[in-house]
Design a protein that fits this description.
mainly alpha, 7 helices, about 80% helix, elongated
Length: about 200
């Protein structure tokens, strides 16, 4: 495992080696990719007042292939930040990335429908996951009441078992969640691919 993970130093050396062999155009393209990714990241962190303005500035006086590369890299940053939410606040993080995509593709009429579809999917996943989790939890808790009562009587003190720590509960939930994630991930990836096709 350790051999598979490249150290930061190795990555830096590889990059330096590539730069050494790269042509002027390739170097410019690498620099543009980096600038594009930084711009996308700054937008997601709310560090930019006017994203559209900053994007237009970056695109200014660039060739069509450079412009395409800039857009492609920003889109990749946004898409990486759209994920199935484990916590509710993560929906907001994804919404910020969707907002960025909507801004980039504002001249394509279908985009707002696509971003809304992704947002709907993320909310649906979160609600579905929570409902299944709570249902499973109450099913397990029902079976534990008797055990808690017996243990409390034996020990002469109230015993409370944390159902979420119970190995059987955790295993059951892991299986359910895996299936649920797979189903939703497939749909989400399909929708994300549509954005990639636009900038391909």
């Amino acid at each position: 495992m350790a051999d598979e993970i490249k150290s930061t130093l190795e990555l830096a050396l590889e990059k330096a080696e590539k730069i050494g062999k790269a042509s002027k155009e390739e170097l410019e393209l690498m620099e543009l990719r980096e600038k594009a990714q930084k711009l996308g990241a700054k937008f997601l962190k709310n560090e930019i007042e006017n994203f559209e303005e900053a994007l237009n500035e970056l695109l200014q006086n660039k060739s069509s292939s450079q412009r395409k590369e800039i857009i492609k890299n920003i889109v990749e940053v946004f898409l990486k930040n759209i994920n199935l939410p484990w916590f509710e606040y993560q929906i907001e993080d994804s919404k910020k990335a969707l907002e960025g995509l909507a801004c980039i593709f504002k001249n394509i009429p279908e985009i707002s429908r696509l971003t809304q579809e992704i947002e709907r999917l993320l909310k649906e996943y979160y609600n579905h996951k929570e409902a299944i989790y709570n249902e499973l939890k109450s099913r397990f808790e029902g079976g534990l009441e008797e055990l808690e009562k017996n243990l409390s009587a034996q020990l002469g003190a109230e015993v409370k078992i944390n159902i979420e720590e119970h190995p059987q509960f955790r295993e059951e939930w892991r299986k359910i969640k895996e299936k649920l994630d797979e189903e939703y991930e497939k749909h989400l990836n399909y929708l994300k691919e549509l954005f990639k096709k636009i900038v391909a």
